[in-house]
Amino acid sequence: MAELLTLLNSNLEWAKRIKAENPRFFNMLSEQQAPEYLWIGCSDSRVPANTIVGMLPGEIFVHRNVANMVIHTDLNCLSVIQFAVEVLQVKYIIVCGHYGCGGVAAAIKNKPLGLIDNWLRHIKDVYYHYRTAFDSCIDDEERVDMLCEFNVIQQVANVCHTTVVQDAWQRQQPLSIHGWIYSIRDGILRDLGVNYDAPEQVPEVYRNLPVAQPGK
Ligand code: CO
């Protein structure tokens, strides 16, 4: 229990420090939360969303799971996205992966880990889909890092394919989705250059409505 006591004491110190800087901070937050960002990241303890972007409580709505996945039928993740977009009206959704992700590394191995293999199978699908791109990799580390990037790109697409995002775009709600990757080695976030803010950017089969063709 002593270890847990450290956490509780540390919390008291933290709350005291925040209050000293801004006496109204907790009163303000208790009235409402109005974050502009939804962060979908990995559960890895080395990638804490608020800390790495220097943001305070109340500024980012966060969902984390093993390997920052957005699975089409994961009601947990879908509910987070729905609440963030429809109730909180976030303007940005960021899918953030990280190099050296243990979940991604496990997905390209053939070593059974149990139930989690079913979760990681989605990353195996990404690996198989892009398999020829890995021919240039010199070792497993490079292979894992490349797959971490492809995984973010795929999860960004999966966010865009949800009914929640499609519905938001259909009612013209400003909402953009972005893919970033974090390096545990230097603490720097990199923008992978995958940015979506309109249904025309996703394949037609995933859209709510077909895009009107000129003259039709
Ligand atoms: Co990870």
Characterise this structure:
β4 (176-182) and β5 (189-196) form a beta hairpin. The longest helix is centred in the C-terminal third of the chain and has 22 residues, at 140-161. The protein is α/β, with parallel strands linked by helices and 216 residues long. The protein is globular. The protein is built from 8 helices and 5 strands. Cobalt (II) ion is lined by residues 42, 44, 67, 98, 101-103.
Count of helices?
8
Strand content: 15-25%
Instruction: Please describe the biggest sheet, giving its number of strands, its sense, and whether it closes into a barrel.
Output: 5 strands, mixed
Which structural class do the helices and strands define?
A: alpha/beta
Task: Strand order, main sheet: write it out.
Answer: 2-1-3-4-5
In which range does the helix fraction lie? 40-55%
The count of strands amounts to 5
- The general outline is globular
Q: Radius of gyration, rounded?
A: 20 Å
- The end-to-end span amounts to 70 Å
Q: Which ions, cofactors or small ligands are bound in this entry?
A: cobalt (II) ion
Q: Flag low-confidence runs.
A: none
Taking all residues together, what is the mean pLDDT?
Answer: 94
